[in-house]
Every structure is written in structure tokens, then in C-alpha cells.
Amino acid sequence: MLLLVANSFVTAGSGMRGAVNAFQVYQITGDARLLGLTFLIQGLPSLVIGLFGGTLADVMDRRLLLRFAVGAQIVIALGLAWLTGTDRIEVWHIFVATFVGAGLQSLASPAQQALVPATVPGAELMNAMALLSAGGQAAMLLGPILGGALLDFSGAAIAYLVDALLILPALLALALLRIRDEPTRRQVKLNLESIFEGLVFVFRTRVLLAFLLLDTVTMVIGYYPAMMPVIAKDVLAVGATGLGALLAAPAVGALLGFVGVLLLGNIRRKGAVIVAVSVAHGIVLAAFAWTPGSPRPGSSPRPSASSIP
Fold first, then answer.
1. Helix %, strand %, coil % for the chain, to 5?
2. Distance between CA 41 and CA 24 in Å, rounded?
3. What is the pLDDT of residue 42?
4. What pLDDT shows up at residue 188?
5. Which of 284, 294, 292 is nearest to 230 (CA)?
6. Under DSSP, is residue 13 helix (H, G, I), strand (E, B) or coil?
7. Which of 61, 83, 190, 300 lies at a 20 to 30 A Cα distance from 228?
8. Which of 24, 146, 141, 30 is nearest to 92 (CA)?
């Protein structure tokens, strides 16, 4: 339960900060290309720093690693609140905060997953994993909505302060977390050989490699959240609150998909289902791109920073 609390609050805070970051970048620059760069910076740590996460989870105290990552997230939120409140915030500050925050998440995620078997009985493991996933998706739904609402009604500085306060219960939950029966750890050394062990295994396993390539292509080519601030402001004119709702929408779909998988039970042709869903995802994105009012290259001038309220 404590791990669920920690994961839910951290995920909500991260989703909230992501919405505020995206809004601020577009507010300061009015340049959609820098929005894309923001989300690229957010994704880079999972490719680079994420390689170290699993190894660190094997050689370090996992609770200590999680506490460090969560505590640092609070510092990041407070730093952004101070920079924004004193009118010193610049785009590069947001880029650095985004990279460091995403890197901390990449380091902490394997440690969190490894702690689940150590905190619940074996018979409850599958239920615990499902509950953790559902809690994370619910938090991803609430975080951007709260961030967008606070942006409209209180401003970015207050939104960052609330973000820091939102993560505090997670730090408390991790401080109280006790291990009941932690599985025996592999004897692993923190070196390049151990770090790339997983990559070698993935490239040698055709099924895993196919899933990795499919997910990579989908995320790189069809990562639509980067354009949501432009759509919210210039197309739909719904403000920061609407932006929060748009960024939260994927979490609604994920929750519905989670329920659908539970109802369908054990699907026999799992690979075919994954391919079909990926194709459907591409079709929906193409349809969304050509809906009336969607921004086209060269269709309208970019707003200047001074024209954004």
C-alpha cells in the first residue's frame, strides 16, 4: 500500500509538472519546435540513463534509491517555483529540469518494480502489480488536469509549489516502507558489461526486439503530446485548463484498455492484437491530423511570446 501511495503521488506530480513545463515553453517562446525539443529532452534519459537503472537497483539499497529520486523531484519543483515567482525563468531552466527529472524517474523505476515482490506476499503479486499500474494511470489522469487548472487560476509558480507538496506524501510513504522478504539479489558489478547485458539479451530475443522496435517507431514518429499546447491555445482556444485535459486524455484510454484486457482475459493471439492496435493508433493519429482546424505547416504565423497571455 505504501508503494502504491508513493507511486501515485510521484506520478501525479510528474504529470502535473509536465503540463506546466509545456505550457511555459510555448508561453515564453511561441515556437512549436521548442515544444518538440522539450519532449525529446524528456525522452532522452530513458535511452541513456535508463540503462543504469536496473544495474543500480541490483547493487544499491532500492528504498534509498527511490527516496533520493523522489526527494530530488521536490527540489526541482521548488527550484522552478522560485525561478518563475521571481520572474527569472528561462527556457533552458525548463530543459535542464525536464532532463534531470526524467533521468531520476529512469533510475527509480527499476528499483520500484523490484520492490513490489518484497512488499507483498507471492500470492498477491499479480494483483499488486495490476493495482500499481491502475494507480499510476489514475495519477496520470489527475496530474495534468490539476496542473492546467492551477495555471489558469493561480499561475505557474503556485502550480510548481503544489507539485512539490504533492510529492511530499510519497517521500513520507517511502520513509515508512518496510521490506518483508526481499528476493536474493544477483551479484552484479556496476560496469559497462553489466549495463549492456540487458541490451544483448533484447537483441538476441526476436520477440522482445520486435516489441522494442514497434514501440520506438510509435513513440518517435507519432508522439502527439508535443503539439498539445499549440492545439489547446491556437486551435481550440481552451487555455491551460484545456491543455491539462488534453494531456490527461491518454490516461483515460489506458485505463479503458486496462479494463478491456481484464474483461477479455487470456488472449490467444497476443502478437496480432498488438500489431492491430498499433495500426489503429496510426490511423487515428492521421485522422486527427486532418481534422478541420488542425495546424498545418505554414498555415498560420507563430504567435510571439508577448502575444500569449
1. 80, 0, 20
2. 15
3. 87
4. 53
5. 294
6. helix
7. 83
8. 24
Tell me if residue 131 falls in helix, strand or coil.
helix
- The domains of the chain, with CATH numbers, are 2-307 (1.20.1250.20)
What single letter denotes the amino acid at residue 48?
V
What distance lies between CA 179 and its chain's CA centroid? 26
C-alpha cell at 57: 537497483
Which residues of 120-209 form beta strands (DSSP E)? none
For 296, list phi and psi in degrees, rounded to 5.
-115, 155
Question: What was the pLDDT predicted at 157?
Answer: 95
For the chain, list residues with pLDDT below 50: 298-309
Among 134, 171, 148, 106, CA closest to 17: 148
Helix (H, G, I), strand (E, B) or coil at 158: helix
Q: How far is CA 46 from CA 2, 10, 50, in A?
A: 25, 17, 4
Q: Any idea how long the chain is?
A: 309
